[in-house]
Amino acid sequence: MPPMLDVSDAVRAEIGDEEAGRLLAGENAPGSYDCTSCRTPGDTGREPTSTVLFVGDETAVLAFAHSACVPSQVVRVSEEQLQGAVATITGGQNPAAGADAGTLGGAPRQAVLGVTCGQVLIGDTLHPAIVVEPTGPIARPGTDGPGDDFLPMLIEEGFKPVADVDTTPGTVDGWSVLMAVGQLHGILQPPPEGTTQPTSWWQAHQPLDVTEGWRTAANKNHTVLVYASPHGTIGQQPREDLLRDALEKSARRGTLVAAAMPLAGTS
């Protein structure tokens, strides 16, 4: 009996019709696997299974997930991110829940961003959130002045000022949050003019672990709220209640912007 596999057109285009045919016939498909999204066991002979192709700069890795968790898709990551995913497939901190310093793309110099993951309660719903704060002022590309243009540049990209943390931020076109193998890898921005592939706005130095609650909320909502504030306003808060308090204070000062972003890859 052939496996219950779904190979999307995007995955087929990457691996070719011949390899896709072998997978669907069961020649190269595993019987059992660990879901690349929820990390629990799966069985291609008993339950619908998605093929998920991670594509790096030089290599690609085919993984499998419950179809109920994620659809079959191609996830484009850097080679470094792919090697981290491979180590997790084959193979801390309490992030109000995870914290990391990564790089910010597009600035005239590599700026370091502090990133904290936590859940934000809006109404009766817990939302997975990422809070971004630079470790220093961010200059506008092409300038070397002492000013901090971090928030104005984000507002130009579609982020909106937050006056009340109890209000869900609106979406911003073309941006997404990259998850792979249950870890946070980066925040993607729209592709440069003349290209079709999104680029990394922020990229984790190494894949960032998130709590089970954060991942569950992300799977449920398929959306992550991304908040950003200038240097010196939020800090690396160790608990979610302290993070919420810092967000509210930043909003009252008029120094908080946010946007809702869909998940790219698997959560």
Layout of helices and strands, plus pairs?
Layout: E1 5-6, H1 9-15, H2 17-25, E2 32-34, E3 41-43, E4 49-55, E5 60-66, E6 73-76, H3 79-90, E7 99-104, E8 111-122, E9 125-134, H4 150-157, E10 160-161, E11 176-180, E12 183-189, E13 199-209, H5 212-221, E14 223-228, H6 240-253, E15 257-265
Parallel strand pairs: 1-4, 4-6, 9-14, 11-15
Antiparallel strand pairs: 2-3, 4-5, 7-8, 7-13, 8-9, 10-15, 11-12, 12-13, 14-15
Helix pairs in contact: 1-2
Structure description:
This protein is of the alpha+beta class and 267 residues long. It has six helices and 15 strands. It folds into two domains: 5-90, no CATH class; 99-265, no CATH class. It has helices at 9-15, 17-25, 79-90, 150-157, 212-221, 240-253; strands at residues 5-6, 32-34, 41-43, 49-55, 60-66, 73-76, 99-104, 111-122, 125-134, 160-161, 176-180, 183-189, 199-209, 223-228, 257-265. Helix 1 packs across helix 2.
Using brief descriptors, characterize the structure shown.
267 residues; 6 helices; globular; 15 strands; 2 domains; 8-stranded mixed barrel; alpha+beta; 4-stranded mixed beta sheet
What is the CA–CA distance across the termini? 30 Å
- Give unreliable regions as ranges: 88-97
Shape: globular
The order of strands across the largest sheet is 7-8-9-14-15-11-12-13
The proportion of strand residues reads: 35-45%
Oligomeric state as shown? single chain
Helix content: 10-25%
> Largest sheet at a glance?
8 strands, mixed, barrel
H/E element sequence: EHHEEEEEHEEEHEEEEHEHE
